[in-house]
Design brief:
This protein is of the alpha/beta class and 230 residues long. Helices cover 31% and strands 22% of the residues. The strands form two sheets. It has an eight-stranded parallel barrel with strand order 1-2-6-7-8-9-10-11, surrounded by six helices. Strands 4-5 form a two-stranded antiparallel sheet.
Length: 230
């Protein structure tokens, strides 16, 4: 049987308008619609809490200058506790300063279905590696310049924008022992193309469509973020 990629919802089920993205309701929906897990964004509040939000501001408040109580956003600890046995977690750190707290929370709520801590920021990845070399890290790349760092950083994953995920490049990364997640893949033809290319994970705004194209049409054992026996 062919090994299919991990199916991950982008910020949960971002395309669904019935629930807000980056919320527990959105994460639940992504899983219910057939995903193995989801990607979500983490920021640091003014009082040192790790909360879930993509943008630096919400409802007119700057997250880095506001308290968690003011913001009323999900906590990273809450997400880890809720989904540590249910889902593969792609934990994107949007800003520096979260590294120590992230490591502490991962020790308390170790994800059992596989995970990666990802970031666009090389310094964040290097700091995480220095704190705990066992944490699986992922470099997120949207430009050629960002992609140029993939080989010299201590990462297990490369989260590549779909426009950069060329067959030769994917083959090169796999030959170097990296796992490749492609984002954000929303067109059915692209979902099928990247699955055939052999990427390890596909991140989509539309979990239902992603699962329909991959899980239902090419059922088989899935790739995981863990080595066998671990």
């Amino acid at each position: 049987m062919p090994i299919r990629p991990l199916l991950l919802g982008h910020r949960g089920a971002r395309a669904e308008k019935s629930v807000p993205e980056n919320t527990l309701a959105s994460f639940d929906l992504a899983l219910a619609q057939g995903c193995d897990g989801f990607e979500f964004d983490v920021r640091l509040t003014g009082d040192g809490q790790a909360v879930i939000c993509h943008d630096p501001r919400i409802r007119g408040m700057e997250i880095a200058a506001s308290s968690a109580q003011q913001l009323r956003l999900p906590f990273l600890s809450e997400v880890l506790a809720c989904y540590q046995r249910k889902a593969f977690l792609d934990i994107e750190l949007k800003v520096p300063g979260l590294e120590n707290l992230c490591c502490e929370l991962l020790r308390s709520f170790a994800p059992q279905r596989g995970f990666a801590v990802s970031s666009f920021l090389p310094d964040v990845l290097e700091k995480l590696h220095s704190l705990d070399p066992k944490i699986p890290l992922g470099l997120i790349c949207e430009t050629q310049s960002q992609l140029s760092r993939w080989l010299d950083l201590p990462t297990k994953y490369v989260m590549v924008h779909h426009k950069l995920a060329l067959p030769k490049r994917v083959a090169e990364m796999k030959a170097a022992g990296r796992k490749i997640f492609v984002w954000t893949v929303n067109l059915p033809a692209d979902i099928r193309r990247f699955s055939r290319l052999g990427v390890d994970g596909i991140i989509s705004d539309n979990p239902r469509q992603l699962a329909m194209e991959i899980r239902e049409k090419a059922a088989g054992p899935r790739k995981t973020g863990r080595k066998s026996g671990k």
